[in-house]
Amino acid sequence: MILRKYMSLFGIGSAKIDLVLPKTSFRQGELLHGYFFLEGGIIEQKLKRVECDLVMIDKNGKEEMLIDSTTVLKSDIIRADECNKLSFTYRIPMGVPFSEDGVRYLFKTKLTFDQGVESVDEDYISIV
Length: 128
What we know:
By secondary structure, the protein is mainly beta. The protein has one domain (2-127): Immunoglobulin-like (Sandwich), CATH 2.60.40.640. Helix content is 6%, strand content 56%. It is elongated. Residues 3-11 have low confidence and may be disordered. InterPro entries: Spore_0_M.
């Protein structure tokens, strides 16, 4: 049991997060409804928060610009091998550039624990 705890502190076998979206292409101002899929690891872990950032990546793929950020404080425990869904609603901001000329967007999702390595998920989208 102690070995499992230390493994999860280094990210091996820790809980994971996945942002599940209904599609990958959205319009400016569109309201999207998805969910975060939380999957427990090999031990019970105390969750702290879920952060989800909308990031624009330039056409060279080298520079990232934070467009918007959402934080869900989630003081909860996820047990080993447990699966949960946490709803996610987000409105695509008006005025953001369309996904053309190599500009790309992604949602960077981060699950933070009281102890251990954060779980990160990236989901690319396009704005048409």
